[in-house]
């Protein structure tokens, strides 16, 4: 996206194709001497057997400026944990594989349950939260970056672009959010961003009126990207959602905790593709159906906390307004794809819009029926206040797992 447009709400850092990767990495190495950089990789064991992660590993092996890599491993038994440690042993950087279902980790979870602080459900949010806790316990990094482990088009330039804004000590940014076009196999992808989030934010502005928070979210070119970087001083007070509203939740936390001048988005790829979720029309607890409901709830919760009053009639109006906006944007996306030689299945796109419209109502009903629902995992500051030895014991448990199952 070789332009230099700024929207005025947050800074957009573009790739104008005027600087080499070697030059960028050389500067990051210099920053890393005094501002250590850690990469967090939340992954499922099944991703070790997929097509993306082996290439990601090969790319990461050549990254010169990383101080540490933390791998959060979900859905693995003992044998699979051993295999994962062998798989990641090729990394030349200091690295740690956290086995989230190990007996030691489960015992720590029981301690949290006694305080009422245990995450409500497993998933990416809990995985990221645990990795953050380990990083806080290490107390030796200034920058944390996160990206997914299913990126089929990965190369190390993505990471360099992602971390540079928060690693550069002369920049004011506490958080950088990656953006890119979702393209793969000759198709225009990114259905949830294109067909749910974008038209929903437009519809919300029409229905509930001007809100700075809505303008803030609309400033992000790809608000659902799983790639972001933070200065570690922000981590102890960061509330991580446990459901599929993780990406929106982190943006909302940045809105709550940071000044707009401290947040930026950065272009990290010309073409990005990863595994695709099923629409899951028949089962609202899975796939894009579950994701769309959780995202809507995350946005509604944040608006309510800022004083917006939601009613059943408002949600019905919102659904109708969203549906019209989504169909208008669908036409725009179709024409954009056509001009660039990409395929878009208009029938499937409209089916997605219809499902998302229904899920706006479903999310609204859940929100109204459960006003006290809190899907957020407690902040690490709160965990430390309840159990001052927990972070130390988390780090020790990870180290003991690594030693026992070497």
TrEMBL record:
The keyword Transferase applies. It comes from the Bacteria. SUPFAM superfamilies: Nucleotide-diphospho-sugar transferases (SSF53448). Its EC number is 2.4.1.266. Keywords: Glycosyltransferase, Transferase. One of its GO terms (molecular function) is glycosyltransferase activity. This is Glucosyl-3-phosphoglycerate synthase. It comes from Roseovarius indicus.
């Amino acid at each position: 996206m070789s332009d230099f447009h700024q929207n005025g709400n947050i800074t957009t850092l573009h790739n104008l194709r005027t600087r080499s990767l070697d030059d960028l990495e050389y500067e990051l190495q210099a920053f890393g001497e005094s501002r250590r950089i850690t990469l967090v990789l939340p992954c499922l064991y099944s991703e070790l057997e997929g097509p993306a992660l082996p290439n990601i590993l090969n790319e990461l092996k050549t990254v010169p400026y990383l101080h540490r890599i933390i791998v959060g491993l979900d859905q693995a038994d003992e044998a699979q944990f051993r295999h994962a440690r062998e798989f990641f042993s090729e990394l030349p950087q200091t690295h740690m594989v956290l086995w989230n279902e190990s007996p030691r980790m489960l015992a720590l979870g029981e301690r949290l349950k006694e305080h009422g602080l245990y995450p409500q459900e497993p998933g990416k949010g809990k995985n990221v939260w645990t990795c953050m806790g380990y990083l806080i316990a290490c107390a030796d990094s200034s920058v944390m970056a996160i990206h997914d482990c299913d990126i089929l088009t990965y190369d190390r330039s993505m990471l360099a672009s992602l971390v540079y804004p928060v690693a550069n000590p002369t920049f004011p940014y506490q958080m950088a959010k990656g953006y890119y076009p979702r393209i793969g196999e000759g198709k225009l992808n990114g259905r949830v961003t294109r067909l749910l989030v974008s038209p929903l934010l437009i519809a919300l502005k029409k229905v509930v009126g001007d809100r700075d928070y809505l303008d803030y979210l609309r400033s992000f070119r790809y608000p659902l990207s799983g790639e972001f970087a933070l200065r570690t001083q922000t981590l102890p007070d960061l509330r991580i959602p446990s459901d599929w509203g993780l990406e929106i939740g982190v943006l909302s936390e940045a809105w709550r905790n940071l000044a707009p001048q401290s947040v930026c988005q950065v272009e990290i790829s010309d073409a990005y593709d990863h595994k695709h979720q099923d629409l899951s029309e028949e089962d609202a607890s899975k796939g894009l159906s579950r994701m769309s409901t959780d995202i809507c709830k995350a946005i509604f919760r944040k608006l309510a906390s800022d004083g917006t009053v939601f009613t059943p009639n408002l949600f019905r109006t919102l659904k109708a307004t969203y549906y019209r906006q989504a169909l208008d944007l669908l036409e725009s996306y179709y024409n954009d794809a056509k001009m660039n030689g990409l395929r878009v299945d208009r029938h499937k796109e409209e089916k997605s819009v219809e499902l998302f419209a229904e899920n706006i109502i479903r999310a609204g009903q859940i929100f109204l029926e459960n006003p006290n629902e809190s899907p957020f995992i407690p902040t690490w500051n709160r965990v430390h206040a309840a159990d001052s030895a927990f972070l130390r014991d988390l780090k020790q448990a990870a180290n003991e797992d690594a030693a026992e199952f070497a």
